[in-house]
Write a structure and sequence with these properties.
Layout lengths: L4 H5 L3 H22 L2 H23 L4 E2 L1 H21 L5 H19 L5 E2 L3
Antiparallel strand pairs: 1-2
């Protein structure tokens, strides 16, 4: 079940981030299940944009997160970018599974408070 704009706005920033991550995973999985290469390309692009944003966010000096969280999110972002750019829509099933699992685990980590990223100054 996807949330509408009003429901998303009612979520905390962390919940919105977790929702975005889980939605990216769902879009990847749905595109694969349908065998729709156009939808897969769009889902991969969306996921890549999300991860580029994460990498940019954690690299900002005003963003407070533990060094471990920053390093792990940066490594994951680099992996997602490398996998997406090197394979495109011909991405192997195992790699696509990995991308989906990364998104779901990060979403879960956000909701459980394991990935504390403070964007406030």
């Amino acid at each position: 079940m996807l949330l509408d704009a009003a429901q998303i706005e009612g979520l905390s920033l962390t919940e919105q981030d977790a929702f975005s991550m889980s939605q990216a995973a769902v879009l990847l999985d749905q595109a694969r299940a349908k065998g729709d290469l156009k939808a897969l390309a769009a889902a991969l692009d969306h996921n890549l944009e999300l991860w580029v944003g994460i990498r940019t966010l954690v690299s900002r000096p005003e963003v407070r997160a533990s060094q471990n969280v920053q390093e792990n999110l940066t490594k994951l972002a680099n992996y997602v970018a490398d996998a997406t750019m090197s394979h495109g829509i011909e991405i192997p099933e195992k790699t696509l599974d990995t991308l989906i699992n990364i998104d779901l685990q990060v979403s879960e980590g956000l909701l459980e408070g394991k990935l504390n990223v403070d964007r406030q100054k």
